[in-house]
UniProtKB/TrEMBL annotation:
Lineage: Bacteria, Pseudomonadati, Bacteroidota, Flavobacteriia, Flavobacteriales
SUPFAM superfamilies cross-referenced by the UniProt entry: VPA0735-like
Ranges annotated as spanning the membrane: none
Domain DUF1214 per the UniProt entry, residue ranges: 2-34
Name this protein carries in UniProt: DUF1214 domain-containing protein
InterPro entries xref list: DUF1214, DUF1214_C_sf
Superkingdom of the source species: Bacteria
Species, as recorded: Flavobacterium potami
Length: 51
């Protein structure tokens, strides 16, 4: 996934637009959740930059 005001060339299908100079927040939707989600023993990692 790529996040930013402009899509990287050739990566448009894996890009989410953000607004330059504005903060943004991700929301995740989960399907088929297990007990670990509900009892909070599972925690999603932060989004990390990959190089």
């Amino acid at each position: 996934m790529y996040f930013g005001p402009k899509a990287p060339a050739g990566k448009e299908k894996n890009w989410l637009q953000t607004i330059k100079g504005k903060h943004w927040f991700t929301y995740m939707r989960f399907y088929g959740t297990t007990e670990a989600y509900f009892n909070k023993s599972w925690k999603m990692d932060d989004i990390k930059e990959m190089k």
